[in-house]
Amino acid sequence: MEWNVTDELDRYRAFEWLLFERPAPYVLKMTFNNPAQMNAMTRPMKEEIHAIWRIIDEDPATRVTIVTGAGRAFCAGGAFDAMPDTGQKDRNDQFNQDFLDARELVAMLVNSRKPIISAINGPAIGAGLAVALLADISIAAKSAKLLDGHLRIGVAPGDHALIVWPLLCGLAKAKYLLMTNEIINGEQAEAMNLVSLAVDDAALQDKALETAIRLVDTAPTALRMTKYLMNSFLRRNQDIFDLSAAFEMVNFGSAESVEALRAYQAKERPVFKPATNDFQ
């Protein structure tokens, strides 16, 4: 049949923070588009990211999605203006909304019917790293920088790490990386199985497209069933993830997180008061 790219992409025209193109038949390329902030997720951008997966699942012209970032970053996580408003009076409403948002993003990625490939072209942090690592196949540029980042701002890792990192790289490595918040590059991430592949920076997009085309040429129903079965390992960790997301929400607004965030933005060493009623 004749391939009409323009008609196929009409359903994506309303999105402002996500760019779409069709690099090959049945392959959709989605690009985070906030390069001035290293593709950090503003509130409007986060809303679009939450909405897009259902639309892709309903798109008959898409069998595989590649996700990447505009400019020099994949996604620097949540923008500061999109973080929980710790100053509002009704913390319960804020807690509920942010907990549900975190839960929904992970559920959308895990339960989406069609394969997702992440092409990690630069820094991937926090919620951006969630998209990168919950993709079915993650391909990182060797120079890409990966960081969970939550403990740097005084909150527990609550947007994806506890559901998938121990499965990817083992409990020992997951503890080390999450507790120390050490930044690793794509080559190191591949060596410890945190990502599927690491390739030379210049080859990243071509490798992602080559992989997508291989998936397009695979029996689609069997491929979706394989994705569903593999992600059963993630669904089994749902209770751990729910607790981690709840702990993150509890931490926001605490004296520790206020000090950690202040120090992080000021590029200073944080000073924490001794805990008077320590956890556990």
Task: Provide a descriptive summary of the structure in words.
It is a single chain. The chain is an alpha/beta fold. The protein has 12 helices and 9 strands. It has helices spanning 5-8, 43-57, 91-111, 126-134, 161-169, 171-180, 186-191, 204-216, 220-230, 232-235, 238-251, 255-266; strands at residues 18-24, 27-32, 64-69, 116-120, 124-125, 137-141, 145-147, 184-185, 197-199. The strands form 2 sheets. A 6-stranded mixed beta sheet has the order 1-2-3-4-6-9, with helices on both faces. A hairpin with a 2-residue loop joins strand 1 (18-24) and strand 2. 38% of the residues are buried.
Brief descriptors of the model:
single chain; 280 residues; alpha/beta; 2-enoyl-CoA Hydratase, Chain A, domain 1; six-stranded mixed sheet; three-stranded mixed sheet; 12 helices; 9 strands; 46% helix; 14% strand; globular
Content of β-strand: 5-15%
CATH class: Alpha Beta
Mean model confidence by pLDDT = 90
Radius of gyration: 19 Å
Number of strands: 9
Strand order of the largest sheet: 1-2-3-4-6-9
CATH topological fold name: 2-enoyl-CoA Hydratase, Chain A, domain 1
Number of domains: 1
Query: Uncertain spans, ≥5 residues at pLDDT below 50?
Result: none
The biggest sheet amounts to:
6 strands, mixed
Helix content: 40-55%
Distance between the termini: 63 Å
